[in-house]
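Because discrete structure vocabularies remain unfamiliar, it helps to consider an illustrative case, giving the amino acid sequence and backbone structure tokens:
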Amino acid sequence: MDSLNKSVNTSEENTRNNFEEVKNQLISRMDNLQLQLTAETKIIQEKTQTELQQLGENKKTLDMLTDSIRNISIQRKFNTQLLHMMHPVSSCRQDFNVSGKLMIQIELNSEPFEVLCEQNKFDGGWTVIQHRFDGSIDFYRNWTEYRNGFGKLDGEFWLGLEYVHQLTKNRPHELLVEMKDFHGNYGYAKYDEFEIGSESEEYKLKKLGTFSGTAGDSMEYNKNQSLARSIETMTHIMVIVQRSNTGPGGTFASPVPI
């Protein structure tokens, strides 16, 4: 009996020792895993921090490149404007590169003035003489303002009857009127001749060629009529040309030369 008890005690002791050894092994493995996880987490954090710093540096570099490109673009635009001011052209047809503002000198001894050129529509070469699109400019003006022009070329504007006369008096021109209503419906009227007289002729619509287009021939009613006969008549003409009874918007333009 004593021998049996001794054997049982020995077996229990061995079992406890085995369990204790397994426990210690598991704790050691867990500690090792924890250390490994901590080390890997630190590596990931350091790598993430490095990548974030790199992204920050890349963003700074990208911002610097963007600023440089913007400055180059601004400088090129300035240089182009300066070149045009120093060496104005006689019409928008002499510069087909891009739509935008351009200095024009019609005659050798005439005063240059700035116009807006449209180079993308109807084969380009158009000098925009009126642009209305958002109602930001009041077009009910007096005679002097219609003679000299008003508004800004990068917004709504009327170029001025005297400028239109100077543009059209020495060489053949076409006239293009583009319109779009509040629903986006588009129409245009195109005439293969266009000329208005001088101020002494009260800026009479002297030439208006053959009509083509989709907007209706509203200008025919104004042929050989004086645009200076009265402010009300002049304003009425401008509204008819621009709106064509469908709502404001569009471009009123003339190319130089045919």
Remarks:
- The first strand starts at residue 100 and ends at 104.
